[in-house]
Amino acid sequence: MPTLIQDACGGITGTTQGNVLSVVCTAGLPKPNITSNNSDPVENVDSVVITCGPQTQSTSYLWSVNNKSLPASTRLELSLDNRTLTIRRVTRNDTGPYECETRNPVSAGHSDPFTLNVLYGPDAPTISPSDSYYRSGANLSLSCHAASNPPAQYSWFINGRPQPFTQELFIPNITANDSGSYACLAYNS
């Protein structure tokens, strides 16, 4: 019997008291892994639960994000055993990467990094350069940008008329006929 315990444990500690032997078996830990109930959450809408596995006895669970300890936040909630981390109403700043560490008296293990793909935007688009006046004969080159995940697609409107679907708008050798209102629309799916 002691051989079976030895083989299963890899290391044994024991104490004797009279004719009773108490044996404590602590096994080495497998490499932890992180699972999520939602890998593609929507910003300010979804909450995400990430779990460090496997669940083993006498194990401590520690979390880090961006290679730092978890920050104090009312949106982050750990389960009583620290195995599960809930992120309430995710933001684009919650992408990670997250890592979990498991520890027991015999060993420790680190998970591979886990990154959330937080979907957001597009934010309000900006047009650059922001100049309003151009000389006749100049080339007009405008760029539209909006932070977004997935990346935004763009369309332009000149005086309300739709233009090609592109992030950059270029009009060579402008004239007075090119005067008007230029607007950019950003969208994603």
Automatic annotation (TrEMBL):
GO molecular function: protein tyrosine kinase binding
GO biological process: regulation of immune system process; signal transduction
Domain Ig-like: 30-117, 122-189
Gene Ontology CC, one term: cell surface
SMART domains in UniProt: IG (SM00409), IGc2 (SM00408)
Entry coiled-coil feature ranges: none
Keywords noted in UniProt: Glycoprotein, Immunoglobulin domain, Signal
InterPro entries from the UniProt entry: CEA_cell_adhesion (IPR050831), Ig-like_dom (IPR007110), Ig-like_dom_sf (IPR036179), Ig-like_fold (IPR013783), Ig_sub (IPR003599), Ig_sub2 (IPR003598)
Keyword Glycoprotein included in the entry's annotation: yes
UniProt family annotation: Belongs to the immunoglobulin superfamily. CEA family.
Name of this chain's protein: Carcinoembryonic antigen-related cell adhesion molecule 8-like
Designated gene of the protein: LOC112817989
